[in-house]
Fold this sequence. Notes:
- The chain is an alpha/beta fold.
- The protein has two domains: 21-52 and 282-540, P-loop containing nucleotide triphosphate hydrolases (Rossmann fold, 3-Layer(aba) Sandwich), CATH 3.40.50; 56-159 and 186-278, Spo0b-associated Gtp-binding Protein, Chain: A (Distorted Sandwich).
- 19% of the residues lie in helices and 17% in strands.
- The protein has helices at 2-9, 107-112, 154-174, 201-204, 295-302, 365-373, 389-408, 484-499, 531-540; strands at 25-29, 56-62, 95-100, 114-116, 136-141, 144-152, 191-193, 227-230, 238-241, 263-265, 272-279, 285-289, 320-325, 345-350, 377-383, 471-476, 518-520.
- The strands form four sheets. Strands 1-13-14-12-15-16-17 form a seven-stranded mixed sheet, with helices on both faces. Strands 4-2-11-6-8 form a five-stranded mixed sheet.
- The chain is elongated, with a radius of gyration of 32 Å.
- Bound molecules: guanosine-5'-triphosphate and magnesium ion.
- Magnesium ion (MG) binds next to helix 5.
- The site of magnesium ion (MG) has 5 residues, from helix 5.
Amino acid sequence: MAHSRLLLTLPKCRCRVPTASIPFIARGRWQSTNAADLPHLNPPPDDYSRFIFQDKCRVTVHAGSGGHGCVSFLREKFIEEGPPNGGDGGSGGSIYIQTVEGLTSLHKLARRGVIRASRGRNGQGKSKGGKRGNDVLIQVPVGTVVREVDRDDPVANELARLKSERLLRQQEAENEEETTEMFTPVRHDRWVLYPGANPSNFLTVKFPRSRPRRQHIAAMEPQAPIFLDLSQPMDKPLLLAAGGAGGMGNPHFVTRNMGRPEFAARGEGGMRLELDFELKILADIGLVGKPNAGKSTLLRSLTNSRTRIGNWEFTTLSPQIGTVIVDDYKGRPLVESKGKIPRTHFTIADIPGLVEDAHLDRGLGLGFLRHIERAGILAFVVDLSAGDPIQGLQKLWRELGEYGRLDEAEPVDESEDGGVIEWDTSGSGLPELDPSRGRRRSELPAETPTTVRKDGSLPRLTLPPIHKKPWFVVATKADLENTQDRYKDLQEYLTAVEKGLAEHPSGHADGWKESLHAVPVSAMRGEGVSRIPKLVMEFLA
Ligand SMILES: Nc1nc2c(ncn2[C@@H]2O[C@H](COP(=O)(O)OP(=O)(O)OP(=O)(O)O)[C@@H](O)[C@H]2O)c(=O)[nH]1
Ligand SMILES: [Mg+2]
């Protein structure tokens, strides 16, 4: 009795998971979608999880400088003036980069701003070499592009200085009559003197000619300027900037005339790189739709995503990713794929809605279109309750076409209708897709290898043009009135495009049209959505 009273008096509690524990990638098994879970598909505006998301940042990285060589001499009983035994300086720490699966945002990197590898320790007496500086590994999400903005390489600067000095000498030698003793500035920055030495010793000591040195691993650095397209998980880190070489101890400078050199070399300075990081999300499916079309609701109904839903435009302000698990609950794939790695899951990217002229940077569109550029399959989300869905679809294609044109100067256009479909549902039990359709999958973008080239850089990712990607239409809000006829028109139009009777909506005659579907769904009721994973697996298998 007391128990039931307690239940009655308790306020309605909504289970909230701490934000930090929610992964950015939400996972869900599409088989588990059932009508009983409906409240999460039409949630109140405050029922969503916040993600910290950053898809761009600029970071300055400093490789560590080398430690200085040591000036030291053996001191033992009965050996008054022992031979030099100064150790070499340790080399500076290097900066490496690696893509890691599971990371989804650059916000941690952006927060760091400046990344420094530590410097090498100085050499010591008794021929003790200095300790190496600690390396730094920058971990980024798969799909990150790294571009160099600026660099300051002390070794390159020194080499350039030596070259200009040599040219000057050559010129002097040509005009022999004007020959004067060339003034060589004292290089405090390149030499270390014996501890007890005066600064004036710099003027009296005759330093040997020295060329700046690099660590051997510097040969693995990517070619300047750096451009890396890290589209695959990497099992080994890639070197970005090698630390400065350590300075040599005084034994290295022994000559026949100078048995006890009282100087050693300073370590080379570490390189500074200013890098732009940009994350291009690599999802299998990109949802393309106008604001308020119902993309986020669709993502929620397919996955466990807690993305925000609201009956206003621009509810979604940053890309969201959901993962749909399609295994048999034991990690085994449900769809067998011949000759390829079997897929047990696929990812869906929900980006902010595209307004008209999004390619001219209206709305929020342009910044996020690049995420769609990389999706393997495009899902056009068209709201059946908001006017003519065919025009809606064509407008979306036009925006994508214009964006593609910005990228690679491609022509685009529009089109019309033709075709067949049966529609006999009034809200529930939406029709099954004909399994004989959606067979061809040859057009899927090939896996891009992340093989490192000889110069250490990665090959540039070659993306197929947007109009060549497989696509389908998700006709949402099919539970609302007057949507059946619109859906019918839309499917007729797609059949006409497939048969070549109507122009491809991208305006490209070679646009992908192997099997075009419009899937009618009511994402809010969770109806019809289970057909999407089936269709996607047909494409991915
Ligand atoms: N009746 C009905 N309403 C839906 C359906 N799907 C979404 N809605 C409603 O449409 C409105 C917009 O849904 P969202 O999922 O936030 O739309 P969106 O495309 O993500 O919008 P933006 O993030 O602004 O681009 C919400 O009020 C949803 O409840 C559906 O299948 N049926
Ligand atoms: Mg949204």
